[in-house]
Amino acid sequence: MRQDRSADSWASLYADHAAAWEQRFADACAACGIDGAVVFSGSVKYRHRDDLQYPFFAEPYFRVWVPYAYPGSAVRIVPGEKPLLVYQRDEDFWHMPAPEPEGVWTDRFEIRCVSIGKALLRELNGVSHLAGIGEDAGEEMGFASVNDPALLSHLDYTRAFKTPYEVACMEEASRIGALGHAATQRALAEAPSEFELNEIYCRASGQRESALPYQNIVALNEHAGILHYQNLDRQPPAQFCTFLLDAGGDFNGYASDITRTRASPGDPFADLIDSLDAMQQQLCAEACPGTDYVSLNDRAHQLLAEVLVAHGIARCSADECYQRGITRVFLPHGLGHLLGLQVHDAGGRLEGPGGAERPPPSEHPFLRLTRTLEPGFVVTIEPGLYFIPALLEDLRQSAAGRSVDWDRVARWLPYGGIRVEDDVLVTETGSRNLTRPALKSCGLA
Ligand code: GLY
Ligand code: MN
Ligand code: MN
Description:
The chain is 34% helix and 14% strand. Helix 5 packs across helix 6 (194-205) and helix 5 (164-187) crosses helix 13. The two termini are 27 Å apart. The longest helix is centred in the N-terminal third of the chain and has 25 residues, at 7-31. 45% of the residues are buried. By secondary structure, it is of the alpha+beta class. It binds glycine and manganese (II) ion (2 copies). The site of glycine has 6 residues, from loops.
């Protein structure tokens, strides 16, 4: 665990975290009339007709309890009993065996080691009165329920409220991501390719690519307008316009999710980036307890309309730009999402623990978070402004297209777009930005 926080501090954070999650599991199980749950971490998967492994990502409800992603393992959580971890440690001369459990979390568990998958079930002490959770929980195992949607919805709903241990992990994930962002920004002067920038990010943040919380988006020039751009060009572009990096860090299974966009110093596109950055900070400040995230998403579009008008991209009033849906062409994704054990954390649309969902408004179908913000939520605030040819063409053909300065749009097409993304913890009185202090400590504004 993190070196500059004492082991005692982590121990006490983890103890409180485990106690909180024991209560959450107890409540969820009671609501579903079940005695407890077994969470399977999942299995290593192999390529078809091959003995090569895919990268392994453990079930999030396993990582709640266990900082290390043991494959083929399970935790048994039964209220009133000491939690049990059964982990798999095969003698395998092809692969490194999983490490022995160590660290502040181990005191909380009874821990047993098994060598082969079949023995795992035997070690779990009978499961007919328990719920099975995870990809490896099978109907044939004799559980009272398997991945019961009602149970999962209870857990998903409470998962939005991060424990102080989870916040500490996400602060550390932010620090890891910030190291990578800072290194790529410093390297820009040498005109690197996307491939090189990705390598620089992984090296500086100390992360192997297969273990990143999500695949880095490393986009130069017009690629910045492809929302989940997945390639890595090996050739630097002939002329540098923009660099968009969406890349995070992982710590004990918890993620950070950070995006910054840069233009050449002195390039007028930098003014547009500055405007989006100011707008993003305004939205971060408004991410307070009681704020309806659907309304905040709406507010982002109102502010974006002002930016489009101020920069001469829209030739109408900001109100008209917003009302006619022009902003939705320039910002087709949602304002952000819950963040935690998954980058797009589960439960973003739940109205309560019962499973009913609040769908996003029809004009914002990709909005992943429709809840009212409460203390303990960690959310991303990630407005963007993109020049996406296919969407712009539709706009040009429509009546609203007459309100757009197409020469201005054509000028910015080679720049692709802008996204500014921070991770924000909602507090009792407002919010705390987890990203900006981490970037600042690495020398980035
Ligand atoms: N990195 C993916 C996202 O920002 O949602
Ligand atoms: Mn995000
Ligand atoms: Mn992102």
